[in-house]
Design a protein that fits this description.
Layout: H1 2-13, H2 28-36, H3 44-50, H4 63-73, E1 77-82, E2 85-91, H5 110-131
Antiparallel strand pairs: 1-2
Helix pairs in contact: 2-4
Length: about 130
């Protein structure tokens, strides 16, 4: 019964969370994204230097968790390593973030994909007719 109510509520609400633009306080991973916005490789020391003297400096040992959060937001982060040690991070799709480090939602191009699928399906159907 409870699951039914939850599913009903979710269907009424729709998927509006992904299209909303969040306003308010900047998260730690968004500050790190601001450092990575140049699109060039940035060393972990350069990222840490941004947080020196702040209350966030103590929890920066979890840098990989913050990189994971950037990826969850839609960022493509390239990790440059020397063996097992991380030398630098690079934000590949830096043009899809605003100056505050927040991911800018882009509309999905589902119509083009469905047109391709229909074209391929039609071609396969024609091939099957010719083979028979």
């Amino acid at each position: 019964m409870m699951l039914t109510l939850i599913l009903y509520y979710m269907s009424l609400k729709g998927n509006k969370m992904s299209t909303m633009i969040r306003k308010g306080k900047t998260n730690r991973h968004e500050k790190i994204t601001q450092v990575l916005l140049s699109g060039k490789p940035v060393t972990p020391d350069e990222i840490r230097s941004v947080f020196v003297g702040t209350d966030q400096e103590k929890v920066l040992y979890r840098l990989s968790t913050n990189i994971y959060n950037i990826r969850k937001d839609g960022g493509i982060v390239k990790v440059i390593k020397d063996g097992r040690k991380v030398k630098a991070y690079q934000l590949v799709n830096f043009d899809q973030f605003d100056k505050n480090g927040r991911f800018i939602q882009q509309k999905a191009q589902t119509q083009k994909k469905s047109a391709k699928v229909e074209t391929v399906a039609a071609a396969q159907t024609e091939d099957m007719k010719e083979a028979a």
